[in-house]
Amino acid sequence: MIPEKDIDNCGLFGVMDTSGRRFGGEMAVNAIKNMKVRGNGLGGGFAIYGLYPEYKDYYALHIMYQDKNMSAKRKTEELLTENFYVVYDEEIPTNPEINVFSPPLVWRYFVKPQKKSEEAHMLDDEYVVSKVMHMNTEVEDVYVFSSGKNMGVFKGVGFPEEIADYFMLEKLYEGYIWTVHSRFPTNTPGWWGGAHPFSMLDWTVVHNGEISSYGTNRRFLELHDFYCTLHTDTEVMAYAVDLLMRRQGLPIEVVSKIFAPPMWNAIERMNKEEKELYTTLRMVYAPLLMNGPFTVVIAHHNEMIGITDRIRLRPITAGAKGNLVFLSSEEMAIRRVCPDLELTWTPAGGEPVVARLNTEDHLKSLNKSI
Amino acid sequence: MYSHLLSEFTVQRMDDRCIRCQVCERQCPNEVHEYDKELDRMFTYEEKCVGCQRCVVMCPAKALFVRSHPSEYRMNASWTRDKFQNLKKQAETGGVVLTGSGNDKPYRIYWDHMVLNASQVTNPSIDPLREPMELKTFIGRKPDTLKINMDGDVPKVESELHPNITLKSPVLFSAMSYGAISYRAYKSLAMAAKEFGVMFNTGEGGLPVEMRKDYASNAIVQCASGRFGVDQDYLNSAAMIEIKIGQGAKPGIGGHLPGEKVAQHVAQTRMIPQGTDALSPAPQHDIYSIEDLSMLIYALKEATNYEKPVSVKIAAVHNVAAIASGIVRAGADVVAIDGIRGGTGAAPLATRDNVGIPLELALASVDRRLREEGIRSKCSILAAGGFRCSADVLKAIALGADAVYIGTAALVAMGCTLCQKCYTGKCAWGICTQNPYLVKRLNPEITSQRLVNLLKAWSHELKEMLGGMGINAIESIRGNREHLRGISLEEWELNVLGVKGAGE
Amino acid sequence: MNGLNMKFGWRDNFMDGLRPVRELENFSEINGVRAEIDAQGLKHKELNDLLFHLVKKGAREISIKNVFGQRYIGSRIFLPDAQDKVKIDVYNFPGNDLGVFLGGHYINVHGNAQDGVGNTMDSGQIVVHGRAGDVAAMSMRGGKVFIRDNVGYRTAIHMKEYKDKVPVLVIGGTAQDFFGEYMAGGKVILLGLNLKKDEYHKAHYIGTGMHGGVIYLRGNVEEHQLGKEVGVRQLDDSDWEVVTKYVKEYCGHFDVSEQEILAGKFQKLLPVSSRPYGNIYAY
Q1: Sequence-separated contacts (24+) of B463-466 with Cβ below 8 Å
Q2: Nearest C-alpha of chain B: how many angstroms from C133?
């Protein structure tokens, strides 16, 4: 029996160096390890940005083949060579000494779109999205972990530190943003694609909570050609981010107010312009109100964003030291990896904390926090 | 009183039998009967009658009849009488319609669509009167394997075991809090549980301190959203702790003990001021997700030195199997599932009648899910919500329950007639009231015996049915769906229940 | 959906890999009634096992170093017959549910605390030299909690009292939403010391569903920040007595000036009814 959707409740953590300096996975791994009891070993995963500078102009596809299904791999590679120029590919190296649950084969491909004439008008990103959606929905035993440039997602069934050890993240990789997720599902098959982060192009989402409005959100996204295949409520969050931020170009400051809008009685008290803005947002984007408890950390190039539901039913704490910005389910996980933290703050429900490359934008949320 | 309502009941007095003894007047807390001395006549205010039948059974002359009121609205399949009446009440008050007791809507009762097996020829049936028949049940987490030291004369268990509670029979009294029910009703449950070797559940109203010495070892204490009466002594004195997330009669909403029921001793036990509303919030505000539940489970284990099993009680809702899996993985030793027919002292009618799913389906899918995931032995399952007889109990155990909670059945044994007016605090049977005049109608010495008799009778019936199947220990029927068959059920229903159709 | 394998076994995030107390003893030193624990690398249960073990060996003043997020500190210590109480100093960063169900002991935190400080606490005292997370003092029924700085959401939710058992919570900073929600008893003092002049408190829905107890609030709130079950009153003499007493204690813990605090503007928030939801039903 396949569950209709899945509910995750979890621990999450993110760290970004706003100067763009790349660093190893030690902080991410140790922080999430410090929150071990927030997960139950049924899922862990990492997103790393600034991962492949040598291939930064190519889409990096992390593709998993369930049960190491070689015919799925053959089919996928046929698709890839038909639709892309594949400049380099290899198996993502793993540590055979780490015992994980039923590992799939995970391969990475660095690709550039090879469009047919009728597809020539498509933007590269749209093209990649359509091919990734196709592989996820149509090819048995195949799931694309991530498809952005100069970034990648590593995830699987296990505690996150085991996944890190399995993919040897600390040893092999550096990045300027690391987000990580430890999963405590209440409804899940044990499969690697179901772990977080969820990703589309270079957008990733890690999520803690349950989106009670899932059915509503999903139906709205289907109007925009996003089809949920992963049986998890986090998926709608990832697609909604992709729709609003990438396709429709809305800034996170607005998107956060779509996901977690102010209460009507707060809107009533606003000045005329604000009232109009928020009323319109709620009217137009009503189906994308994310109802129920959630904290998400969203990342893409140059930005790491933390946000909770509007009545802050799930925890988040932000921290900063120098150029480092942290987001975490628990403050002490940040302190564990950065004992001399300069600032910690907790935003109000629905108030985003936005860390941007070469800015101090994250401090903007300070005055709305405690 | 409402101005446009038809009476629910009509009260008929056979005047030739009535001896004007006024027992009915004294017995009725709703003031239906009134004696006029000058006229030497009994008057009846039938619009106040709730149909509890107290006056009828107490009338020494057998002069009274209470039956449904004959006046009717025009027949209408959509606008039934109760829809009419409730709407009119709301038009008058603007309020939420309250009710008591369990769901009375005609949702399919699956117990009545499943039949049990018996042995014929191939396997001898057993007569429990003469041969051993065992109902002893352990509730709690079991290890998957044991480490046995064979060095000594007797093999010795070396594994550390998880705490379990022991039941003489797989029937426990469901959570009914002191405050919702009277002290005497509550004490009757405690006394019966102790005498029979099972458990009673305190609900979230606390456990009166003076009862702890004698009854705590048969008490399952609840830690619920109101945290009433919860301190370290309460937790540590009990046999088991139950985190109440939800209740079958009102999934997703909290409780509300009105201030007038918070009398001095109730206040003391709940540790709140006398006369204030005891509000139980809908969620526990330290639990907004599964990892928070895990946090509370271990907080309770910490507070009790890991010596008590911790149960988590949920209402049966759509995703119940997945939620149960999460609960077990969060560290619970017991999962209690309360179905849509579970009782309540007070619940909004809209919720009671429309939210949740039948226990039978929930229980079967939870048991299957936990088995599929390989974690069934990590917990026990307690099933609750609408058990009416021993056969229901046995069918539940065959669907995977370790034991069952009975609430309504126990109340009926004490006198309750399911008039559904628990929330008024005027229970004529002295059960669901704090009015000292009414409470006195229960004598715990007698009432507890009625409860013991019930347990005794059901246990005996369980043994008879087990014996018929050629089974002499209750554990052999647990989850044993081979001994169940469905009748008049759709295929999807058989699939969810995991039973074959009769004749298959 | 890609192939599913349902049997993924069992991982116990809390109980797996625990070491027995005798192995943990070398993380501690005991000297008469004093003891010290180095919590570096100790799991939640290990730390509490060790703490209780030391208490059973006679320790009454225990300091715990290198705490990073371990939960439930102090909750295990249940001494039903003992009059003596345990003093625990936590350096620096305890995890969730610090002192949950706490029965009479004293916890001093030299740093921030997370969610659930003093959750369902029965008696004793918790002092946090920093800030606290969400649901601090939730369902607290007795004892005292002092938080130097801010608190998160749903602080003092469903706090309650009975007769002489009246919980007290003093917060130096401000709070986030649903402050004092469902409050059924107890005394809560919110000082707003870190707010700028004329800045309003952060919390909305203050005292929603409040039906007992009292909140003393120093500084400014707008009316719409208050729940509809709350009434605003001036402090009378007995109120000032209460406020002065606990502000004095607060200042004692955190070494700040009492006069300055008491010179601020205080108001008293009371429930308008002990039966806030008495009229919403049709019987």
Answers
A1: B463/B128, B463/B133, B463/B135, B464/B128, B465/B116, B465/B390, B465/B391, B465/B394, B466/B126, B466/B128, B466/B133, B466/B394
A2: 12
